[in-house]
């Protein structure tokens, strides 16, 4: 299973391009007919009520999957420490049903690898798929990879000009975030770059989630569809 999509969907910058002629209330459904998955970003900034998740699930085709970005209260404010209550509150709010994909845990760039802290955090995670995106070079270590492997948590392979791209596959699925290779959140991926990512995904030979986060000038939907074509990935609405 390979799912390719975008990080978020509420972008006014897409209004005159990908969303031309589409009212804002229909943006999610429109995008979901062109990609197989979407990352929910709003969950990072504030706790979403279960009714929001149910609404988003209802607006997407059968077979569609969402990834959900974990709360910044856990990753950025508590910095993975003393998170039991916050984690329970966050995970109990999720109401996507069968459309629930992995939970993404994105770390702040100032957070260094701390083996005991990460070990406790991974042990506290509820069942299901989880993906971990560090943004500090200190995570490029076998001790980090080994911990993720023990818990079947995917290391997020992130492509960006401002934080390290650590290529490692640590779980029975892979998770990729493409933030823009040359300009963060802006630059489009050209044919050669898309061909390169397609080769990596084929070589990894496992379930894979790919999210284009180069959203600021509208490249993400087009890049997602072009990568899906290279990998012969059908739309969720066609499954």
Features:
TIM Barrel; DUF72 domain-containing protein; alpha/beta; globular; 239 residues; single chain; DUF72
Structure in a nutshell:
It comes from Lentzea flava. Pfam families: DUF72. This protein has 239 residues and is an alpha/beta fold.
Task: Describe the structure in your own words.
Helix content is 34%, strand content 18%. The chain has 239 residues and is α/β, with parallel strands linked by helices. The protein has one domain: Alpha-Beta Barrel (TIM Barrel). Helix 8 links the parallel strand 7 and strand 8.
Number of domains: 1
Give me the side-by-side strand order of the main sheet.
1-2-3-4-5-6-7-8
Tell me the number of helical segments per DSSP (H or I, 4 or more residues long).
9
Specify the CATH class.
Answer: Alpha Beta
Organism: Lentzea flava
Pfam family, one: DUF72
InterPro entries: DUF72, UPF0759_sf
Protein name: DUF72 domain-containing protein
